[in-house]
Amino acid sequence: MSRRLRLLVAVLAFAASAGFAGAEVTWDAKRTSSPDTVAELRALESKVKAVTEKVMPSTVGLLVGQGAGSGVIVSESGLVLTAAHVIGKPGAPCEVVLSDGRRVSGKSLGVNARLDSGMVQITDKPPEKSRWPGVEPGKWPVAELGKSADLKKNQWVISLGHHGGPRQGRTPPLRLGRFDYYSKSDMTLKTDCTLVGGDSGGPLFDLNGKLVGIHSKIGVFLEYNMHVPIDLFRTEWDELADGAVLGKPAVELGATLDSDKNVPTVIAVADKSVAAAGKLAVGDVIVKFRGQGVLTRTDLKSLLLECRPGETVKMVVSRDDEEVKLTLTFPRAGRPSDDD
Amino acid sequence: MTARLTRLALMTATAFLCAAGPSPAQVTPTSSPVPDRGKRRVLSLFGDAVAAVNDGVVRVLSDNKEVALGTVVTADGNVLTKGSDLKGELVCVLRDGTKHKAFHVGYHKESDLALIKIDAEGLKPITFLGEDPAALGNWVAAVGPTSDAVAVGVVSVKSRKLTGDQAFVENADRGYLGIVAKGDAKEGVVIDKVEDRPTGRKPGLRRGDQIVEIAGKPVSNYESLKAILDNYAVGDVVSVRVTRDDQELSFKVPLVSASDIGRGAMETSLGGPLSRRRTGFPVVLQHDTVLRPTDCGGPLIDLDGKVLGVNIARAGRVETWTIPGNVVRPILNDLLAGKYEPRKK
Known about the structure:
The complex is a heterodimer of chains A (340) and B (345). Chain A is α+β, with helices and mostly antiparallel strands and 340 residues long. Helices cover 18% and strands 32% of the residues of chain A. Chain A has 7 helices and 20 strands. By secondary structure, chain B is of the alpha+beta class.
């Protein structure tokens, strides 16, 4: 069906449902082009406003340990989808910041570190004073799941999330953008809805108000914003809800990092490990790995997930205030790497 | 206070967690893609709305450098602009290309709004919307003295009071040591991390050092360290005495700017430069328009051409802030009445 025709159908459907006789301009949620007229721009605006109002209540902030991220409620019993790197591991207690600013308790369920998917269960009841339009008292406001495979290039999407961590008096900021593509190698959706730290775990919606992705990472340019496709959550839903740890790295470094510190600081090196062979030493702070800057333990973990058996990796550590270059080689596994 | 700072610093760490970096397949580091890819067309659809106000916008030069946009508020040449980047000789360039010498009339520190005056008549002043403006999701455009909008976006958050660390005016020129202090240190200030510097080598300070003295003044806790540094600017060199393994050592440390270290450096490198002054405003309207810091000071409009406020800061990778018209109005009246002095250096 041509776009013009599809639009016409949408217009007729709207006119019929709303009982309008005139040709009101509406925005087709699946449309992949820019608006052509000011009237269409206004129609897109109305659509965005309506969808934002509808999905805002389901968007939450997550405070886990000393970090902050976002999430989205997907079941009336309080199941929340988020990113693996926000919650780290199953069983972690967290605070869930609701869209009205109230806070309730939750705990993390399963994670898939490779996909960067994770779940949290809210363990409290909805606060008595919290009210969401169209939601019965005692139930959670829920985002409906969409299908990420149905996204078309240049389709308009909206993103919500608590960038910088939840802030008093600020609803999760809206960003509007367009879907670009699904990266098979990366297993992420790419959009130009800008994200930054704290947005991680927050929801990406299509203009039907359906949840299609979870914010995961960003690149150098404003156009590089990556989201975990909702379809990949579906394939592991039960395992994640059951608290499973999925997506372990294919290689092992053999170094233990200080779990009290955010910067990756080596506190032990296993004998005969890759780390030992590469002369990594206790006290080293890893600052660069595989050509990428490393600022936190989680950074290092996600970079390790990308390593393949047989790969040689250069790294830079800070040792007694000097930068030291090291080279590590991960042993070849029994079967060849299936990636790249 | 120290605990709060620690918490925020660590929240910032989430930013790093989020930023695992682009995979090589997706980034061509040599060329930046065209910004606002999906919004080009939208920009042109704003043409009529922009045409209604762009005669009332000027480009502000400070010592011949573009520093801000300005919003004309009276026909005889009063112009509202972003104050913190003004210094030296001021010139306004009108839409017709003519240049006019401007002088600094007054500065309202909290809002960072400055009133400057050019010798002119018959200008087309801009009128701000009196009520609290745009609804969440509304299209907005930043206007310059050009036919096309400077940038377009949508309202991300309704007008709000800033809270926490964002509620305070940070001296944009303030110098920093470039260290992260341990949050749980019982006494003194113990270095948890020495931040990378954009240029030059690290100043010799190390993780674990306890700072005892800066510029000859004793440091008893984090608050006192901050209080001492409040008197110094970026580029100043201070002497820092530390104890390390029962030894006392002294270092000369050149101070860096906030945007050179930690979160600032990260965000700056991931989406273009941010405004130097980006905290302490009374009320802001947040939108996802991508502005250069030098494009602040001009008006923000909606699709009807209504002027929602003055763009005041590119506050982060995902956010630009506007002071809403209903907040600008009383400040503007006070500035016009001569209630505020020009900004002091």
